[in-house]
User: Which sequence fits this backbone?
C-alpha cells in the first residue's frame, strides 16, 4: 500500500535535502547523463555533478578520474541498466578507497517505484506529488471524505436456500 501524497512529498523533500547537504559538504554526485544533471539543478541541487555517460569513458576510466574525491553520491537511473551501473560503480569506487553512498538512491528508487524510471523525471514527479498533496488536503479540509481506492473486490453474496 502506498503512502498518501503529502507523506510522499515530505519524504521526497527530505531526500532532496539530504542530496543538497551532501553536495554542500563536498560530495560528488554521479548521474548517467546531462539531462539527469539538468534535472537535479532544476530542483536546486548545486555542487559538482558528473555525468557518467557523457564522459565517453568506460566505468573503470571514469572511476580512476575521481582519485582526488573522498565521497561520491551515486544517482543513476532506476531501470535495469541504471541499477547495474550503480552497483558496479560503487564496487569500483570502494575498491579505490572512495566512499560511496547508495542509500539515498535506494530510498529514491523505493519511493518512486513504478512512477518514474530516471533521474531526469524527478522534477515533474515532484510537482505532480505536490499537486496531488494539495488536492488531497483541500478535499480533507472541505469536510469531504476522501475515498480509499482498492483493487480488492468485495465478495459476492450468494443467495442461500432455506
Assistant:
Amino acid at each position: 500500500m502506498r503512502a498518501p501524497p503529502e507523506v510522499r512529498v515530505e519524504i521526497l523533500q527530505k531526500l532532496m535535502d539530504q542530496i543538497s547537504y551532501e553536495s554542500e559538504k563536498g560530495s560528488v554526485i554521479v548521474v548517467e547523463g546531462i539531462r539527469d544533471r539538468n534535472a537535479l539543478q532544476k530542483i536546486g541541487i548545486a555542487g559538482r555533478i558528473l555525468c557518467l555517460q557523457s564522459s565517453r569513458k568506460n566505468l573503470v576510466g571514469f572511476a580512476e578520474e575521481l582519485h582526488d574525491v573522498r565521497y561520491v553520491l551515486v544517482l543513476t537511473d532506476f531501470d535495469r541498466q541504471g541499477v547495474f551501473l550503480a552497483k558496479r560503480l560503487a564496487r569500483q569506487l570502494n575498491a579505490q578507497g572512495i566512499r560511496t553512498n547508495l542509500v539515498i538512491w535506494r530510498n529514491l528508487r523505493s519511493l518512486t517505484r513504478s512512477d518514474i524510471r530516471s533521474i531526469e523525471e524527478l522534477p515533474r514527479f515532484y510537482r505532480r506529488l505536490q499537486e496531488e498533496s494539495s488536492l488531497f488536503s483541500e478535499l480533507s479540509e472541505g469536510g469531504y471524505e476522501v475515498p480509499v481506492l482498492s483493487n480488492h473486490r468485495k465478495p459476492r453474496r450468494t443467495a442461500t436456500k432455506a
User: Anything to note?
Assistant: The two ends are 40 Å apart (CA to CA). The beta strands are 28-31, 49-51, 71-74, 99-101. The mean pLDDT is 85. Helices lie at 5-24, 34-43, 59-64, 80-95, 103-112, 122-141.
